[in-house]
């Protein structure tokens, strides 16, 4: 099993890099970004340092990689936090200096398109953190969700175990990113909790995975390791605001299964699907149908390719609210009999 190293954690008062290695959307939507920065400073006591491409739309992959290198190489920077995701971070990977990152390990926080860099850090043996972007978690309308904040604090500042908590309610409907809406609490809906299958044993191992659409892109570009490198890990997956169809989800999982990848994992966490977006404002009935169809496609794929894996659906990770931070490459313990998920931050 791959040996993973936890980088040193920041402490209040430290300088942390705020980067946009996926997309410079803070330049287009400064309101949630600036709100997130104020909370990073006022609530978490950290000093954000922005780089040339943080607010610049259309930055080249080489320029975004240069900012990443500058942040990791600076001894005064103790963590790297992404502003938001994007679409083309896979093009940045060919510009990444692996030896520079390996020689200067730091906690890296991001999700969605940032899974491209999370997988690269995983391959270098550096534990990173899936979640906690400035515009979406720190810059959430009204306030940071309490469960998100608790998870973020633990991941940022502490070591040791942390038990993830299933919330009583969740949200997947966004408010507009303008100053008039940012004081409004996003709508929340009753949560049915996590759905467990094959929950008759305990599985523990380093995590790997992320946004399903990004993983699919990495697989198509052959930017993953041989399947046996993932043996003994805990897989986690989730889908984005693009809301892929149940058929697309099954096809991606089927491809992973045919590759022999799904069979490497003894436990799988699948995130609660986002079933509404600004561009696709589904009705309650449409949301319920979408959620049911995606869950069924996931259950079917793992029944076909990893029938003995412990499978947990609707875990609050990725593109959902609250968002629980997972240590990417860190230890995850899935306790089926106790119905608990514990992570090592």
Automatic annotation (TrEMBL):
<comment type="similarity">
    <text>Belongs to the peptidase S66 family.</text>
</comment>
<keyword id="KW-0378">Hydrolase</keyword>
<dbReference type="InterPro" id="IPR029062">
    <property type="entry name" value="Class_I_gatase-like"/>
</dbReference>
<protein>
    <submittedName>
        <fullName>Muramoyltetrapeptide carboxypeptidase LdcA involved in peptidoglycan recycling</fullName>
    </submittedName>
</protein>
<dbReference type="InterPro" id="IPR027478">
    <property type="entry name" value="LdcA_N"/>
</dbReference>
<dbReference type="Pfam" id="PF02016">
    <property type="entry name" value="Peptidase_S66"/>
</dbReference>
<keyword id="KW-0645">Protease</keyword>
<feature type="domain" description="LD-carboxypeptidase N-terminal">
    <location>
        <begin position="16"/>
        <end position="131"/>
    </location>
</feature>
<dbReference type="Pfam" id="PF17676">
    <property type="entry name" value="Peptidase_S66C"/>
</dbReference>
<dbReference type="InterPro" id="IPR040921">
    <property type="entry name" value="Peptidase_S66C"/>
</dbReference>
<dbReference type="InterPro" id="IPR027461">
    <property type="entry name" value="Carboxypeptidase_A_C_sf"/>
</dbReference>
<keyword id="KW-0121">Carboxypeptidase</keyword>
<dbReference type="InterPro" id="IPR040449">
    <property type="entry name" value="Peptidase_S66_N"/>
</dbReference>
<dbReference type="GO" id="GO:0004180">
    <property type="term" value="F:carboxypeptidase activity"/>
</dbReference>
<feature type="domain" description="LD-carboxypeptidase C-terminal">
    <location>
        <begin position="204"/>
        <end position="334"/>
    </location>
</feature>
<dbReference type="InterPro" id="IPR003507">
    <property type="entry name" value="S66_fam"/>
</dbReference>
């Amino acid at each position: 099993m791959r040996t993973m190293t936890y980088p040193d954690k920041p402490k209040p008062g430290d300088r942390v890099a705020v980067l946009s290695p996926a997309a410079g959307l803070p330049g287009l939507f400064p309101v949630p970004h600036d709100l997130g920065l104020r909370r990073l400073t006022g609530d978490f006591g950290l000093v954000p340092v922005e780089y040339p491409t943080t607010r610049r739309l259309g930055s080249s992959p080489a320029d975004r990689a240069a900012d990443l290198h500058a942040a990791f190489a600076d001894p005064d920077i103790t963590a790297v936090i992404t502003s938001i995701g994007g679409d083309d971070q896979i093009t940045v990977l060919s510009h990444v200096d692996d030896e520079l990152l390996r020689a200067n390990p730091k906690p890296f926080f991001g999700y969605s398109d940032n899974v491209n860099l999370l997988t690269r850090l995983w391959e270098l043996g550096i534990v990173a953190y899936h979640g906690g972007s400035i515009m979406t978690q720190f810059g959430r309308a009204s306030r940071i969700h309490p469960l998100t904040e608790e998870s973020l604090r633990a991941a940022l500042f502490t070591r040791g175990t942390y038990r993830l908590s299933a919330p009583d309610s969740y949200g997947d409907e966004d408010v507009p990113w303008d100053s008039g809406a940012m004081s409004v609490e996003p709508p929340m809906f009753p949560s049915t909790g996590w759905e467990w299958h094959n929950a008759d044993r305990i599985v523990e191992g380093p995590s790997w995975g992320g946004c399903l659409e990004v993983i699919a892109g990495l697989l198509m570009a052959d930017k993953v390791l041989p399947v046996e490198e993932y043996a003994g890990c805990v897989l986690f997956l989730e889908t984005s605001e693009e809301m892929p169809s149940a058929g697309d989800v099954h096809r991606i999982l089927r491809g992973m299964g045919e590759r022999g990848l799904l069979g490497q994992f003894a436990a799988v966490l699948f995130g609660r699907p986002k079933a509404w977006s600004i561009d696709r404002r589904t009705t309650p009935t449409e949301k319920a149908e979408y959620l049911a169809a995606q869950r069924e496609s996931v259950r079917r794929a793992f029944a076909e390719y990893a029938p003995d894996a412990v499978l947990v659906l609707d875990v609050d990770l990725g593109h959902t609210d609250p968002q629980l931070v997972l240590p990417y490459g860190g230890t995850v313990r899935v306790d089926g009999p106790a119905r608990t998920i514990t992570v090592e931050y």
